[in-house]
Amino acid sequence: PGVKVSRHDVEKRAWRHLDLFQYPCYLHCAVPKFKYDDGHKQWYKTMEVPWARAQSGFTLLFEHLVMSLLEVHGCPAQVAQSIKEYPQRV
To answer: I need a labelling partner for 78 at 20 to 30 A (CA). Which of 26, 37, 38, 40 fits?
Structure first.
């Protein structure tokens, strides 16, 4: 009739956040992973966090900063250098 949900595990994650003065800042969190069982099949899902998109290594605020810098400078390599990231990540 219903879906059984139980906590399965945690996934340790880190996200790049806005720098604090000249120091890079990262958010670290153990994000819960849940097991779902409807009697026919089982699946797992990691909880979404409110400060980042799924599968992103950046917080939403950091992504906004990067997009704003790209609007101003237009050059991903220049933006990557200013935020101290690889150009492939920008």
So the answer is: 26
